Amino acid sequence: MSSVCTEQHRVGCALGGYYTALAMEGVLPVLHCGPGCQEQVQNVLALVNGGQNAHPFQEMFLPCTSFSESDVVFGGTDRLRKTVSMAIESYKAEMMLIVSGCTPAIVGDDVAEVAESFSDAKMPVRCAELPGFTGNNLLGHSRVLRAVLGTCGRETPEVVPRMVNVFGIVPFYDPFWDGTLENFGYLLRAIGLKPNILYGRGNGYRNVKKVPRAEFNIVASPWIDLDIAAELRERFGTPLFHYPAIPVGPVESSRFLRELTAFSKLDSNHIEQYISDMEERYYYYINRSLSWIHECRNMSKEFIVISGASSALSFTRCLINDLGLIPKKIYITEDVPSDYHKIIRGYFKDVAYDGPVEVIFTDDGGLAASEMRDMDLSGRPIILGSAWDDASAQNLGLPYIPISAPLGDYPIGSKNYFGYEGGLSLFCEYCAACDKA
Ligand code: SF4
User: Is 34 in the pocket of ligand 1 (CB under 6 A)?
Assistant: First the structure.
């Protein structure tokens, strides 16, 4: 019998899904778990992942039952009921979401019954059971989103023309989520749509209530949130526009816009003019760097990506299609359901490169580091990954760009790589990293 030791964690446990709730203004998670769970999750998804914390409900002020030994013996539902009652009176929230971890699940606390007992409360109270032994924070994200969207009922209200819900980005886990969504919103507005975004500044529960009224849903990811979109189609009949990546760089951004235009029957003349302006601007700035590129002798021709599926695909497409780099190996380090492996491999072939693109699905974050030690690195590949991979890149003398969790313990503000501007940012990061290494 062989044993496999996984190392270098790049995901949180399922309880980490509560960060999806924290990204929605007005939604207050009530934690029903051990006192150390919150900090455990925070360490992977927030603090050392771009120096993030939640706002306006900060982690350290969240109501928590601090599940203890006596709760293990007598059950923790009484304490949970009291905690929810006090939270309803004390916090300025619009919705409350009980999230429960491992110990309540092991002792059999009926968390759903506690949530239902608040059906007459002044705000909706729902629950998402997120014991860490059931999966990672992506499973938790899905359960939280379902629970929050559960407050929308099943009635199909009148559709608001041109309003679109935006899904596919996992807040906090994707360290660039906030800036990405902000710019996603700007892009959709620029082409005549009305984005309904659930996470980030000025968004939240008020937008959750608008979800059933959207003309269609956009899911910009290879697999995340497709389950949510399927449920919304079933409940409200909302059509889906699925694009497998977050558009990074001009090739993907223009393709995304053209496919979206065809789907939503937008004015194609207007979109083509927009694309032409944006591409002209992108190449203007690239051309202003040509002398520098000519002088720099260290530019990598190859790259290795170690990240979640969505980031891996988005960055790979830009590095190949816009910068002409060669993919050496792609490690997808989140637990992607096996049903999606073949489909996702297909997305990686849909690029301007005829050679093979080797994609590895693994939940062992340390696999890339051990394989790179024996790899032919004469092409000086640039590494795109997490803070774990920064250490590997330094040891191997290779350039490195941080793109995925855990990104590192420094604040990133609104930094992102979305769209045409994101392509320029990636180009500059690539040049700077190659020059420095
Ligand atoms: S795995 Fe369980 S005990 Fe550990 S942090 Fe997650 S919820 Fe808490």
Answer: yes
* Cβ 37 under 6 angstroms from ligand 1: yes
Q: Report how far ligand 1's centroid is from the alpha carbon of 202 (Å).
A: 31
- pLDDT recorded at residue 5: 60
Bridge partners of 49? 408
Those residues whose C-beta lies under 8 Å from the C-beta of residue 325, and which sit 6 or more positions away, are: 300, 301, 302, 303, 319, 382
Domain 287-436 part of CATH 3.40.50.1980:
yes
In this structure, is the dihedral angle defined by the CA atoms of residues 396, 399, 404 and 409, taken in order, positive or negative? Answer: positive
Residue 1 is predicted with a pLDDT of 37
What fold characterizes domain 14-152?
Answer: Rossmann fold (3.40.50)
What is the pLDDT, as a whole number, of residue 2?
Answer: 40
How many residues in total does the chain contain? 437
Rounded CA separation 237/231 (Å) = 9
163-247 belongs to CATH 1.10.10.10: no
CB 368 within 8 A of CB 400: no
- Over residues 244-263, the pLDDT tens digits come to 999 999 999 999 999 999 99
CA triple 177-172-79, angle to 5 deg? 145
Reported pTM = 0.96
| Domain extent listing, the chain | 14-152, 163-247, 287-436
Choose one of 11, 32, 40, 111 to mutate for the ligand 1 pocket test, by most ligand atoms within 8 angstroms of C-beta.
40
* Closest listed residue to residue 199, CA positions, set 415, 29, 21: 21
User: For 197-213, what is the mean pLDDT?
Assistant: 97
Instruction: Say whether pLDDT at 336 is over 90.
Output: yes
The two structure tokens encoding residue 280: 């002209």
